[in-house]
Amino acid sequence: LSVTARRLSSGTDADESTIVVSRDVTAEEQALRARDDLVASVSHELRTPLTSIIGYLDLALDDPAIVAETRDRLEVAERNATRLRELVADILAMSASSRHGAEFDLIPVDTDIATIVRAAVESQQPRAADHGIRIDSSGLRDGTAHVDPRRLRQVVDNLLSNAIKYNVRGGTVTVGVEISATSVQIAVADDGPGISRSEQGRVFDRFFRGDAVRNSSTHGSGLGLAISRDIVRAHGGEITVSSALGSGTTFIVRLPRKVGSAS
Ligand code: ADP
């Protein structure tokens, strides 16, 4: 049961009154939880057979004797199975975060932020090269914050992957880290097509994909930024986007250096 009370005042003490609104939210919450549980268990059940399918496809592709036509077909199957596995991983991460709410399952330790960012840049370098994109990571300040390194890496991976995926050929991705006494700031900027004002308010929604990308060849679940926002909020931080159509996009993550302290 949710109860909200609001005191109404017309200015004079004599006219004060209170409105009480009560609403039964248990059924609603139960339905949402049942849906999350179903999605989580189906996704979980899909993971094992998918891993097996991808494993056998990889093995088949390793065979030098297969004819070119068969190889092409197996490669399409392998690409799609891999996309499906990524989607399942995103859904599982999402349902874990909605279940744990703001708590998530963070294991915060003192972490050198630039080290996390450098490792993420290194792992994305081959993809960037494939897209003809240069990553500029010359502006990384050293300094530590009390964060969950695995979760923060997931956020940086996601922002970098988007900045590459939604960039133009020959474009640049610029990554920066700033540290102050109380907070750290990670910025990921690209010179891609940008995000319209109306879509900027929706990019962190679950399953949201922009109009321009839905019909393009880029693939995605629309969950990456929703998961990133949950992770950042669980640390007591915030993630924001600034962009204009035609002038690229910058995502900024701000985290308190100590979880629970003011940033
Ligand atoms: P996905 O990339 O799987 O679609 P995300 O949650 O990571 O999902 O992003 C949601 C949407 O936000 C994308 O589909 C795209 O429309 C938009 N978007 C995210 N990052 C960028 C970016 N760097 N430049 C332009 N659009 C972006």
Summarize the structure.
The chain is α+β, with helices and mostly antiparallel strands and 263 residues long. The chain is 47% helix and 22% strand.
Describe the structure in your own words.
There is one protein chain. This protein has seven helices and nine strands. The strands form three sheets. Strands 4-6-7-9-8 form a five-stranded mixed beta sheet. The protein has a two-stranded antiparallel sheet with strand order 1-2. Strands 3-5 form a two-stranded antiparallel sheet. The model has no long low-confidence stretch (mean pLDDT 87). It is α+β, with helices and mostly antiparallel strands and 263 residues long. Helix content is 47%, strand content 22%. Helix 2 packs parallel to helix 7. It is globular, with a radius of gyration of 22 Å. The structure holds adenosine-5'-diphosphate.
Keywords:
two-stranded antiparallel ribbon; 263 residues; binds adenosine-5'-diphosphate; 47% helix; single chain
**Low-confidence regions:** none
Assembly state of the chains shown: single chain
Which small-molecule species are bound to the chains here?
adenosine-5'-diphosphate
User: Rough shape?
Assistant: globular
- Characterize the biggest β-sheet: 5 strands, mixed
Mean pLDDT rating:
87
Number of helices: 7
Query: What is the share of helical residues?
Result: 40-55%
- Radius of gyration over alpha carbons? 22 Å
Strand order in the largest sheet: 4-6-7-9-8
Number of beta strands: 9
Cα end-to-end separation: 34 Å
**Strand content range:** 15-25%
The H-and-E topology, N to C, reads as EEHHEHEEHEEHHHEE
- The structural class is alpha+beta
